[in-house]
Specification:
- About 45% of the residues lie in helices and about 5% in strands.
- By secondary structure, the chain is of the alpha/beta class.
- Strands 3-2-1-4-5 form a five-stranded parallel beta sheet, sandwiched between helices.
- Helix 4 links the parallel strand 2 and strand 3.
- Helix 2 crosses helix 3 and helix 2 packs across helix 8.
């Protein structure tokens, strides 16, 4: 490890050494990644039970975001114990994180190491195309700097096999959206295969911004045993990355996964991410009226309406599939 990486590693984990939690015997009938929380929120969102306890009553800035030094210090202290307890409750042997070069996956892997130690964290780097090579190298550098076991899985042959099979039945093999969604679900399937065979839990790095806007593949990036940043907006996660000391040149600044080709919701809106996050927090966390939000933030009311419509249109991604005996919302 060169000097830069040593500094990078020390910056991630400043003198923190945690003892892995005691774990009950592994169940013989299933693996820890089959773990299911005892209850789920009324709106059917896919966060682990009690996952918001780590971010309750955080000090916030004037617009309600947890980006103050005090808030970020508190998050750094509270999120690792949340992961540690999750592992202990499930009787798991560790955590697995999909690494894609993004700020979110890098912070997730860092907090996982803080929680249970690098020997109990596995990273998976899953490129598919030549254009993913730089992203994959950065992701591998993150894994090496954290000292975690990691593997690179080349998905292009798997994708080609699936497309070939679908093509034989006249499927839409050249559909870009379908291809990106398939890749996301292939990454999910590979991650859960590793989790099942190694008794690990899957850490999902999706932030609340992408979650509300639906900027993630259903049963792809949102498939996880916990959504570590499900209660934190993109602006807050990136502020946390700076607070931790993650070098900016080791991550790719995108509004979604760097492995996903195409514009994200925020990029299509052409609005600063901080503005989107402030609108979303006021509208969906504090339930402030649309006109009041536009006036308070001095933004075009049409932008607030557009974000509202976007969140309503993608609501199906945040809910469990409906059943005949449950009212639909």
């Amino acid at each position: 490890m060169n000097d830069d990486l040593s500094v990078f590693h020390r910056g991630f984990r400043p003198g923190l050494e945690r003892v892995p939690p005691g774990r009950p015997a592994r169940p013989s009938s299933h693996s820890a990644s089959d773990y299911c929380p005892s209850s789920s929120p009324a709106d059917g969102t896919m966060t682990a039970t009690g996952s918001d306890t780590a971010v309750r009553e955080l000090p916030r800035d004037s617009d309600g975001l947890a980006t103050t030094d005090e808030a970020l210090t508190t998050l750094r202290e509270r999120l690792p114990p949340f992961l540690e307890q999750l592992v202990a409750d499930a009787g798991a042997d560790g955590l697995v994180v999909r690494l894609d070069g993004s700020v979110e996956t890098t912070v997730a892997a860092t907090l996982a190491v803080d929680a249970i130690g690098e020997e109990h964290v596995t990273g998976l780097v899953m490129p598919a195309f030549i254009s993913h090579e730089a992203i994959a190298r950065n992701a591998e550098t993150v894994a090496e700097s954290l000292g975690i076991e990691h593997s690179r899985l080349q998905l292009q042959p798997v994708l080609a096999a699936v497309q070939g099979a679908v093509g034989e039945s006249d499927g839409p093999v050249d559909d870009a959206i379908a291809t990106n969604n398939m890749l996301s679900r292939l990454r999910m399937a590979c991650t859960y295969y590793v989790a099942n065979t190694s008794n690990l839990l899957v850490v999902g790095p999706i932030d609340r911004t992408r979650y509300l806007l639906g900027s993630a593949t259903k049963y792809g990036e949102t498939a996880a045993d916990c959504l570590l940043f499900g209660d934190l907006y993109q602006t807050e996660v990136r502020a946390l990355a700076r607070h931790i000391g993650i070098p900016e040149d080791l991550t790719f600044e995108t509004a979604g996964s760097p492995l996903y080709d195409g514009q994200s919701a925020i990029e299509q809106l052409d609005v600063p991410p901080e503005t989107v996050d402030r609108i979303l927090r006021l509208r969906f966390d504090q339930e402030v009226e649309r006109a009041t939000v536009a006036d308070r933030l001095e933004v075009d009311p049409e932008l607030v309406d557009r974000l509202d419509e976007w969140c309503v249109r993608t609501r199906h991604k945040r809910q469990q599939p409906p059943t005949p005996g449950v009212d639909r919302c």
